[in-house]
Amino acid sequence: MEVGLFCSVLVLATRLFSAVGAEAAPESQAPVGHEQPLGNHRTADISIDEVSKAISGEAFFKDYIHKAKLGAVFRGTAKEWPALSKWTDESLASEFGDQEVRIEGKVEFEDMGAIGSLGIGRDTFRSFVGDYESRDKRVVSELPAVMYGDVLVPGFLGCGRLGKSLVEVDVGLSNGSESTFLRRDQYNYLYCQVSGATNWILINADQAENVYAPPVARHEIAGISEINANSVDMIAFKRLADVPFASVQLSVGDCLFVRAGHFAQMRGSNQRNMGVSLLFSRVATLGDDGDEDTCFSDPPPSARPLDEFDVLWQWSGSGVLDMDRADDHYFKALFRDHMTGQPPAVNLTGVQQMLVTDIPIQMDAEAPETNTTADKLMSLLDGDKNGEITSEELDAVNRRIYRNVSFLIEGDSDLTNTYDFEYGLIDYRQLWDTLDDLLTAKMTESGVTKQAFLEKYTGASILGSEFYGRRLFEKFDTDGNGVISKDEVSPDIMEEHLAEYEMDYEGRGGLPVEGEDAEEEEGEGSGEEGSAGDLGDGEDDVNEDGNREQDSDDEGQERDDDEDDDDDDIDVTEARDRDERDEL
């Protein structure tokens, strides 16, 4: 799937495990498939269904979701999408040019980031299509909501509970020859080819150990294999030789369904490749109370535009993305696991216990934030305010409220989804050394010029983007005279500037301040407030539809001018994020 989205921690963990977890072996004659792309280690020996006619939602659910099959190919299902003829490079630039997209290198295992017009990991469609044919970068992003009307949801996916379970919609675009991780996803997804062609390798979930998935990916439903699928080391990863797999080729208009938990890896053809992924929840039934009627209709219902559906993590096309966040089904199951009594319910104590024991973050039982978070969750989900949350109350809550639940439980969005991705990649001690070199060796009589600073910042030693290089220069040039003097980059001033981007020592590097312990330092740069993973007081960090505000003063990023509500009780019943406010 075109979702490269990846939690940076998972990526780093994968590479760490690949370095220490592979089985050492003496050099000998190279085994079959050695240092070749995944799928060359043996002949594909798993077949999956190919469907070339319209099917009902009942058949789709029964044959491919309920039976936990590896996947299925739906030939021509997307051939009527307006996107197929409309989403040319010219149209993307003229009609959707201001829409922002997340970008990365074309080969996931080998490339961490790509530089766009808005820094590392972020671009606009206009900028991207202007130079991507000659650049090693690709779009791996949530699809901006303004483009939803050009995507049609197949009738078998748009009926009953399936039609109410869309979680996220992603888009991928490259100039060809892209390659993804071998990964398993927490959601079912339907990937549809808009242009070009792709080849997919599918592997059953029960092969997690044999594809060298790290422990987190072996025991959870999502995760990344340690194997570099672009060039497999069959000596180090010898168990892969016995792993069966399916090989699938998609052409324009074809769609591939992959069930949650199974492993998939995609390789693009050597031409312009574009695709859309519809991610949907792991539903257990089609629905009830007549909700499923359309799923049994014959003939099946027609496809409908995506903008007629409620996508849980719909993205406006700017700001912080929400790729890879949990959905309402996950949180409902989480709360139900802690219900007791008759009728089953969970009280404040049960919610507190859930936060400490069952959440992957595992909050500190003694921390005040844990009790505060539990209180806010009760306020959101306890509909009748009787001190208990029932299963019926979980189902009655507006689906978008679970966005707020996600922010409270999961914390801030992954760094790759934010404008600060560049700051997560750069070692700021290296930036400090670079500035020191400039000030001592290449300084003019008045200071370091913008050109000299940008040459260093974008050069081989840092590999930053010109966009953020200019931003940093303007921050350091406090008197606005076009040069940076030594007085303007003293340790105290440098720390003050960088603190604005929450670059605390533990999380994202920080500057070496002589004689001070980073963990004990107080003030704006300590990272004690607003740092990654910090829930704060819950309210100031969550805007009016459950989207966390991205703290940035960049001219290319919109900010909400409304003041945060200081009231301790959060009111999110009527909430909508700032980007949807005018429309709704």
Could you describe the 3D structure shown?
- By secondary structure, the chain is an alpha+beta fold.
- The protein is 25% helix and 15% strand.
- The chain has helices at residues 8-21, 57-66, 83-86, 89-95, 125-131, 215-219, 328-336, 348-357, 368-381, 391-396, 401-410, 421-425, 428-441, 450-457, 466-476, 491-499, 505-508; strands at residues 49-51, 71-74, 100-104, 115-116, 119-120, 122-124, 138-142, 152-153, 166-174, 183-184, 188-195, 198-203, 223-224, 246-250, 255-258, 263-268, 273-280, 304-305, 345-347, 388-390, 448-449, 483-484.
- Strands 1-2-15-11-17-9-7-3-6 form a 9-stranded mixed β-sheet. The protein has a 5-stranded antiparallel β-sheet with strand order 13-10-16-12-14. Strands 4-5 form a two-stranded antiparallel ribbon.
- The two termini are 31 Å apart.
- Mean pLDDT is 80; it is low at 1-21 and 501-584.
